[in-house]
TrEMBL record, chain A:
PANTHER family: APOPTOSIS-INDUCING FACTOR 1 (PTHR43557), RIESKE DOMAIN-CONTAINING PROTEIN-RELATED (PTHR43557:SF2)
Keywords: FAD, Flavoprotein, Oxidoreductase
Span of domain Reductase C-terminal: 343-414
Domain of life, per lineage: Bacteria
InterPro entries: FAD-oxidoreductase/Apoptosis, FAD/NAD-binding_dom, Reductase_C
Domain FAD/NAD(P)-binding: 15-321
Biased composition, class Polar residues, residue ranges: 443-454
The protein, known as: FAD-dependent oxidoreductase
Cofactor list: FAD
Keyword Flavoprotein: yes
Region span, Disordered: 432-454
Automatic annotation (TrEMBL), chain B:
Matches recorded under Pfam families: p450 (PF00067)
Similarity-based family: Belongs to the cytochrome P450 family.
Keywords: Heme, Iron, Metal-binding, Monooxygenase, Oxidoreductase
Sequence segments annotated as region (Disordered): 65-84
Keyword Heme among UniProt keywords: yes
Name this protein carries in UniProt: Cytochrome P450
PROSITE patterns: CYTOCHROME_P450
Length: 468, 412
């Protein structure tokens, strides 16, 4: 391969810095080595742990089946990196090509990958958030603490927000036979991610498993017992519930504060990048040496009208990291676009939920196989007459077929006959996504317009109203 | 529209020993109509896509009667088993079987058989003592899987011989009937009779286990109340237990026999396996790719027109997928005609794919791994007596009828 001199030098002895030492950061580092990068590789991460996996935290770890410190990500290969764990990046100087760290030191780079992900949106009232018994769940430490508390057998657990994470936590509580109340501002659980038609099925699962589900209400306040322990929650409908544990599952915020003033197009909705994972600056011009991957990225997707998508999906972090790493050390014409079709899974109440595409762009839905009532089905989502997404409940084996339909922009409703078509599969209905100006909790795909510097916050899962 | 005349040649016994050149010819047109009617699909990605396509049905009641050509193996007096049903019936029955057979409800069912499997293997090999020649099929591969199925289901040891007899007869239904019309008539009569006796035997066992359940799979099935759906009726149990017997019998026999045949044709690999028994794990996967016991998946039906690889398969067509050809597709597997025991990224079609993928695969893997590792360890200087060996007639479940092996002695 004929490489020009400077690229050759970069590959041989360049300095690559990765900020965010989790899934995307690790997979990018492995890809860099895999593709022949032999220079210095620095991994900066503010958590003290080597990269670990998050999906088990709300599932096997909370259930007590897997200890939180047994979630280390499997390594695909050695990466020979300099690890700066426990050190947060605090600033970026684009012209000096330097990352500043919290300990006062700094690291220079020839290429930078930003993979700082997201964090849980905290309970908005700081005093209440500080009560003993109030939790969020994003990190290993969060999971250890929450698991410990669940093991102690609290009288009741309140889950605030019924997105995927909140629903999984509620499911674990029921499996542990703990009384649980779920409060959701939207009309059903999962309505932000999957719409209320599917959300109604999710609600049935909650009820069937003994969850005290309250939809269309906000938690307005958390009340302590005088010595700083959570005792009670107040709802917007005037009701209350006594609980010793509250888990705040109100979605996530992008970790971009450290980039304020850096000149990158970074904001609360993430860092905008092009399809090749190169970061945009605030002028809308791509930077050649700064790349973005994982939950923190917003990137335009050709399948969805080149709109910018922010995806909080495990598979996206891996695929995007691989593309970013490749593009960091190759010639311009060898760059690859990140064309990954969004894909997500969840396990709750004994049901395996999977989705592909971007459900919350859809206007209509049809149950193309199976039946909502049986809680086993495949549903296709339509947008302007084409298939844009699909979701399966315990029917994951069909998902791939629908992924191809999405990728081929196949017509909606699907015009063909299939196995297991029921009467409810004869006619599409409105998918029931809430008005984007009334946020629900944790839609894990955010579609955010065409502009790289679009920082309006119109569809971010907002916090609950402040207490009255 | 182009068509080929290859299905006849594939089914022709003269090509049984080496069908792979025919498959290579077939792959020149990934999806093609055979003169005899069915559409043949021979390339990896096209097979994969059709195995995951909800417009494709496994229920032969969707197929026009004149399009049905493959021999029937099931008891005509019982409802279809789930391998020949579509969702939702397929899913319900498969779920109910899985509740008694695999995780999460019965996670130890298969794994728990490991000790017994290695005991059965040792016992069968011990019987080679004092001989310098065996027929691997009759002396080992054939009796082995039925014994394992009996233990899995919970057929008492004293009944195993009778069970073997029915299993053998029922399995012959897979072969095309030969001989005079009277002989063919007698052949089908015998099979029907065996089905009846098997069904009667199983009903008795189910009734017994219902009264006094044990730890076995029949007890679990007989006493299961279902989770949120109706449990299996007695005819459904009979039909699907028979399916386990049939689907897990000839296939496993052929995997083990093909395995020894392939090892004896690749002496270096055989040596490697003897030195490193753990190699058997990837080796069995490569075997399932290279010499799959299920070569063809005949008679699926299209519920709608399907456009694939530049061809439109019309609604109502009979589809024959050729997984053994997909397994040798150079667009999916580099150097597909080489047997590479530690081949990486080996997503073969040996156990099918999609909703009908084999539920017996964990068990079949354990059996084949145990058998091949132990045969290779204990047989001293094993050699093929004839190559190719004589094959069974069946082109779908393809494998040697006999595999004579000479050897110098037996290790402990
Ligand atoms: C409880 C839970 C369950 C989940 N379940 C599923 C699931 O079932 N299916 C699915 O598809 N996805 C699931 N996800 C989402 C999935 O885990 C994420 O998509 C994935 O972790 C994204 O990886 P990432 O590397 O982009 O970001 P992260 O994993 O968020 O990693 C970012 C890292 O950067 C660090 N960091 C942040 N700022 C700085 C800084 N300034 N300096 C240094 N380091 C910094 C963070 O501490 C973190 O370690 C789940 C997530 C959670 C929390
Ligand atoms: C080497 C041994 C085996 C091979 C190669 C094999 C292969 C296959 C294949 C290819 C299929 C897919 C059929 C289709 O798509 O129509 C299948 C299905 C099936 N197999 Fe196996 N099999 C083996 C052993 C077993 C065993 C031991 C059992 C039982 C314990 C078993 C039970 C089944 C059943 C029940 C099905 C139907 C599944 C369904 O329709 O959902 N198989 N097998």
């Amino acid at each position: 391969m004929a490489l020009d001199g400077s690229l050759e030098r970069l590959r041989r002895e360049g300095r690559i810095v990765v900020v965010g030492a989790s899934l995307a950061g690790l997979r990018a580092a492995e890809t860099l080595r895999e593709e022949g990068f032999t220079g210095t590789l620095t991994m900066i991460g503010d958590e003290p742990y080597e990269p670990y996996d998050r999906p088990p935290l709300s599932k096997q770890v909370l259930l007590g089946r897997v200890p939180a410190d047994h979630t280390a990500l499997p390594r695909r290969r050695a990466i020979e990196a300099q690890w700066r764990l426990g050190a947060a990046a605090t600033g970026l100087d684009l012209s000096a090509k330097r990352v500043a760290l919290a300990d006062g030191t700094s690291v220079e780079y020839d290429r930078l990958l930003i993979a700082t992900g997201v964090r849980s949106r905290p309970w908005p009232n700081e005093l209440e958030a500080g009560l003993d018994g109030v939790f969020v769940l994003r990190t290993r430490d969060d999971a250890t603490r929450l698991r410990h508390r669940l093991k102690a057998g609290p009288s009741r657990v309140l889950v605030i927000g019924a997105g995927f994470t909140g629903s999984e936590i509620a499911s674990v509580c029921r499996e542990r036979d703990l009384p649980v109340t779920v409060a959701e501002r939207g009309p059903t659980p999962l309505s932000g991610a999957l719409g209320s038609v599917i959300g109604d099925v999710a609600a049935q699962l909650h009820h069937q498993h003994g969850v005290d589900l309250r939809c269309g209400v906000m938690v307005t306040g958390l009340e302590g017992d005088g010595v700083g322990r959570l005792r009670r929650a107040h709802f917007s409908d005037g009701g209350t519930v006594d609980a010793e544990v509250a888990v705040v599952a109100l979605g996530a915020t992008r970790n971009t504060e450290w980039l304020a003033g850096s000149g990158l197009a970074a904001g609360p909705r993430g860092i905008a990048c092009d399809a090749g994972c190169r970061a945009f600056d605030v002028r809308g011009i791509v930077a050649d040496d700064v790349f973005v991957a994982g939950d923190v990225a917003r990137s335009p997707h050709p399948l969805f009208g080149y709109r910018f998508l922010s995806l909080e999906h495990w598979g996206n972090a891996v695929a995007q990291a691989e593309v970013a790493a490749h593009n960091m050390i190759c010639r311009g014409e060898e760059r690859r676009p990140h064309l990954w079709t969004p894909y997500f899974w969840s396990a709750q109440f004994g049901v395996n939920i999977k989705s592909v595409g971007v459900p919350n762009m859809a206007d209509q839905i049809i149950v193309s196989q199976g039946s909502l009532g049986e809680h086993r089905f495949t549903a296709a989502y339509g947008y302007q007459g084409r298939v844009i997404a699909a979701v399966t409940f315990d029917q994951a084996k069909w998902l791939e077929f629908y992924q191809r339909q999405i990728e081929q922009a196949a017509p909606f409703p699907p015009p063909f006959a299939t196995v297991d078509r029921r009467t409810e599969g004869m006619r599409p209905v409105p998918a029931g996504f809430p008005d984007p100006s009334v946020p629900t909790h944790g839609p894990q795909v955010t579609v955010s317009g065409y502009s790289p510097t679009d920082q309006r916050v119109t569809f971010t899962p907002a916090g609950h109203g402040h207490h009255a | 529209m182009t068509s080929v005349a290859l299905l006849g040649q594939i089914l022709d016994y003269a090509n049984r020993a080496d069908p792979y050149p025919l498959y290579a010819e077939l792959r020149r047109t990934p999806v093609v109509r055979d003169e005899s009617g069915p559409y043949l699909v021979s390339t990896y990605w096209e097979i994969h896509s059709l195995l995951h396509d909800p417009r494709v049905s496994s229920d032969i009641r969707n197929l026009a009667p004149e399009a049905k050509t493959a021999p029937r193996t099931e008891d005509p007096d019982l409802p279809p088993s789930f391998i020949r049903l579509d969702p939702p019936d397929h899913d319900r029955l498969r779920r109910l079987i899985m509740r008694t057979y695999g995780p999460p409800h019965a996670p130890r069912r298969v794994y728990g058989l490991r000790g017994e499997i290695s005991g059965i293997v040792s016992g069968l090999i011990d019987r080679f003592q004092g001989r310098d020649r065996i027929d691997l099929v009759d002396d080992f591969s054939y009796p082995f899987p039925v014994t394992v199925i009996c233990r899995l289901l919970g057929v008492p040891q004293e009944d195993e011989q009778r069970f073997h007899g029915w299993a053998d007869t029922v399995a012959t239904a897979i072969e095309p009937a030969v001989g005079t019309p009277e002989e063919q008539q007698a052949h089908w009569q015998a099979i029907r009779e065996a089905h009846h006796q098997l069904a009667e035997y199983l009903s008795g066992l189910i009734a017994q286990r219902r009264r006094a359940p044990r730890e076995d799979m029949i007890s679990a099935l007989a006493t299961d109340r279902g989770a949120d759906e109706s449990p299996m009726s007695l005819p459904e149990m009979l039909s699907n237990l028979t399916l386990l017997l049939i689907a897990g019998h000839e296939t496993t026999v052929n995997l083990i026999t093909n395995g020894m045949l392939t090892l004896l044709r690749h002496p270096d690999t055989l040596k490697q396996l003897r030195a490193d028994p753990d190699l058997v794990i990837p080796l069995v996967e490569e075997l399932l790719r290279f010499e799959p016991p299920v070569q063809l998946l005949p008679e699926r039906t299209t519920l709608d027109d399907i456009e694939i690889a530049g061809t439109t398969i019309p609604q109502g067509a009979s589809l024959w997928l050729v997984p053994a050809s997909g397994n040798r597709d150079p667009r999916r597997f580099p150097e597909p005609d080489r047997f590479l025991p530690d081949r990486p990224d080996n997503q073969h079609f040996g156990f099918g794919s999609g909703i009908h993928n084999c539920i017996g695969s964990p068990l079949a893997r354990l059996e084949a791994q145990a058998a091949l590792a132990e045969l290779v360890r204990r047989l001293d200087n094993p050699r093929l007596v004839e190559d190719p060996p004589p094959y069974r007639h069946n082109a779908v479940l393809r494998g040697p009828r006999h595999l004579p092996i000479a050897f110098d002695g037996l290790s402990r």
